[in-house]
Amino acid sequence: MWATAQTLLLLGSILGLSLLLWSALNPSLLRARWAVVRGGIRRNVAAEQLQRQLPAFCDLLAGSVQAGASLRQALVHVSAYSEQPLAGDLRRLLRDAQFGHSIEDALALWAERRPIQALEDLVYAVRMSLQSGGSVSETLQRFSEDLRERLKLQDKARALTAQGRLQAWVMAFIPIFLLILVSLLDRSTLLFFTTSGVGYLILLIVLALEVVGVIWIRRIVRVEI
């Protein structure tokens, strides 16, 4: 399976020429696609940062609740000492609580805005604790411990699959080097792919192979914790 995926990537690497050439011919499309990609990257980075902040957030929140503060007061206290993106999320959560929402509904809205499994689990656990009359601080402490262990396992899995992910990135960037090489050696080859129907058809086929290969390798190296 791994060899098949690598073969598809190698065959599909030529297809990257079509994407680059099409973007060069359509600058407006390139700008639009880049805006979408950049927005997705920023969201993913923010989600990863927030997930890493959750264990310490739970510890601080549990400590404030144990000291006698209400959950709302504890959130206000923790938000003042938090960094982005957690600080911004907490401020918005508190605004929601000020404008007619209960603290439980505000937590639910936070989880909807940030579709992160760890955050959804945290919000669910806290809401269940509030509704059942259980100890919120104990719930937060247990969740903090569990999440830390989960993050350790994720880091270990990423380290073990680093080589596969690196190969996927190398294969994905091969088209750029091919474009530079072809442009320097034979410009007529570029004209074939950009001016003939057969050239466009070949590029589309290679693009399909490239996409399938990348998705295949990403699924192989992905480990769900």
Specify the biggest β-sheet: none
Number of helices: 11
Remind me, CATH topology of the largest domain? Receptor-associated Protein
Mean pLDDT: 75
- Gross morphology is elongated
Order of helices and strands: HHHHHHHHHHH
Ends: how far apart?
Answer: 22 Å
Radius of gyration based on Cα positions: 24 Å
CATH class of the largest domain: Mainly Alpha
**CATH second-level architecture of the largest domain:** Up-down Bundle
Give a quick set of tags describing it.
225 residues; mainly alpha; Receptor-associated Protein; 11 helices; 86% helix
What is shown here, in short?
The chain has 225 residues and is mostly helical. It is 86% helix and 0% strand.
Can you describe what's shown?
- The protein is mostly helical.
- The chain folds into 2 domains: 2-38 and 159-221, no CATH class; 45-149, Receptor-associated Protein.
- Helices cover 86% and strands 0% of the residues.
- It has 11 helices and no strands.
- Helix 5 (86-98) crosses helix 6 and helix 10 packs across helix 11.
- The longest helix has 40 residues, at 27-66.
- The chain is elongated.
- The model has no long low-confidence stretch (mean pLDDT 75).
